[in-house]
Amino acid sequence: MLQYISIENAKRVLQRQGSVQTAAFESGLSGRSRLHDLFVSIEGMMPGGYKNGGAGLEICYAFAPGPFGDVLVAATPKGICRLAFADNREQDLQDLTAEYPQARLTEAAHPLHEKALAALGGQTAQTIPLHLKGTPFQLKVWQALLQIPAGRLKSYSGLAADIGQARAARAVGSAIGSNPVAVLIPCHRVIRESGIIGGYRWQRGRKMALLAKELERTACFNT
């Protein structure tokens, strides 16, 4: 999982935070990583496709190695619909099937898989279209996540304020927790108001490693 950085180093880097306001990520790091330069566009599925479990959709999926562990990547003809760290392949496939019970799922290569995996590894940025199943509120939160620069942090309440729903921090947290596309939609950049890293859909240790790696990248861009 931690090909690029050890969890102990991640802890040392991140524990220096006092709060969101004084986080090390906010200390003069104006550069952006290649990942943040990535142009990610989100298209929500039509209401019919959302409600009927993806009936009529063809989804190609594959398991592949990544810099922070194996991943499950899946795409419709319109875009990536899931990019998840695959710590349990059988369960991850079951989750994908449960999300799209009426879709036709095929284990096969798709041109967008390669783009998504390249972006996950921090390689040359390319346009990555996402085709996601979500409520209007979830899609709004996921769009807002794309505005958080690499190497920066945002609190749940801060993100809620960004979308004009200042009192909906808990609902924002729920939408973040249901994000189906790891890293490309950077839900790992959201932490608690106190500065505590908090949980992560794909393990807290992995979240810390992702943030530590981004700090390393942005620091390099500013030296």
Question: Any overview of this molecule?
Answer:
By secondary structure, the protein is an alpha/beta fold. Helix content is 37%, strand content 16%. The protein has helices at 7-14, 34-37, 47-51, 89-99, 111-120, 136-145, 156-162, 169-177, 204-221, and strands at residues 40-44, 58-64, 71-75, 80-85, 104-107, 128-132, 154-155, 190-191. The chain has a four-stranded mixed sheet, sandwiched between helices. A hairpin with a 6-residue loop joins strand 2 and strand 3. Helix 1 packs across helix 9 (204-221) and helix 7 (156-162) packs across helix 8 (169-177). Keywords: DNA damage, DNA repair, Methyltransferase, Transferase. Pfam families: DNA_binding_1.
Offer a quick outline of the entry.
With 223 residues, the chain is an alpha/beta fold. The protein has helices spanning 7-14, 34-37, 47-51, 89-99, 111-120, 136-145, 156-162, 169-177, 204-221, and strands spanning 40-44, 58-64, 71-75, 80-85, 104-107, 128-132, 154-155, 190-191. It holds the Pfam family DNA_binding_1.
Helices and strands, with pairings:
Elements: H1 7-14, H2 34-37, E1 40-44, H3 47-51, E2 58-64, E3 71-75, E4 80-85, H4 89-99, E5 104-107, H5 111-120, E6 128-132, H6 136-145, E7 154-155, H7 156-162, H8 169-177, E8 190-191, H9 204-221
Parallel strand pairs: 1-6, 2-5, 7-8
Antiparallel strand pairs: 2-3, 3-4
Enzyme class: transferase
GO molecular function: DNA-binding transcription factor activity; methylated-DNA-[protein]-cysteine S-methyltransferase activity; sequence-specific DNA binding
EC number: 2.1.1.63
Unreliable parts: 1-8, 17-37
Classified in CATH, the superfamily of the largest domain is Winged helix-like DNA-binding domain superfamily/Winged helix DNA-binding domain
Give the overall silhouette: globular
End-to-end separation:
28 Å
EC number: 2.1.1.63
Protein name: methylated-DNA--[protein]-cysteine S-methyltransferase
Keywords: DNA damage, DNA repair, Methyltransferase, Transferase
InterPro entries: HTH_AraC, MethylDNA_cys_MeTrfase_AS, MethylDNA_cys_MeTrfase_DNA-bd, MethylDNA_cys_MeTrfase_DNAb, MGMT_N_sf, WH-like_DNA-bd_sf
